[in-house]
Amino acid sequence: MDYKGFILHHSRCTSINGKGFDFWVGLDGAVYAAPLLTDPEHIHICFEGNYGEAEAVPQLTESQQQLFAAGKLILELAERYQITPLLIEPHSKTCPGAFFPWNDLVIYPSGGYH
How far is CA 113 from CA 79, 87, 109, in A? Predict the structure, then answer.
C-alpha cells in the first residue's frame, strides 16, 4: 500500500477514523497493533491519555516512555512501508488535543541517536 503518512489520536477521541486505530501506544511504552491496517491512505496511532484538557494531560515523566516508543514505531513503520516518518498530522483540531507534546515527540530518521 502507498501510505501518505501518519495520523495521531489520543484515547479520548470520540471518532478514531470511524474504524479504530492501527496502533495503540500506552503510557508505559507498550505498543499494541490492530489485526489489520484500517485506512488505505494513513496509519493511525492512538496515544493513551487525554491531551485535550490541561488538568488531564499525563506529566512528561509519565509519558516519556510513550513518546519514545511512538517515535520508534513511526520510524519502523516508515521503513517498512517506504514513507517519510515526517508526515505526521493530528486527527482533527481537537485530537490529539491542544496539550499534546508535539515538541517532545522526536523523530530522527537518519539512523542517529536521539
Answer: 17, 20, 10
How many whole angstroms separate alpha carbon 46 and alpha carbon 49?
9
The amino acid that residue 100 corresponds to is F
| Under 8 Å between Cβ of 74 and 67 | no
- Across the chain, which has 114 residues, the per-10-residue mean pLDDT values are 90 68 92 89 92 82 88 94 91 90 78 52
Closest to 87 (Cα-Cα) out of 67, 65, 113, 109: 109
Which candidate, 72, 73, 57, places its Cα nearest to that of 23?
Answer: 73
Output phi, psi for 13, to 5 deg.
-65, 130
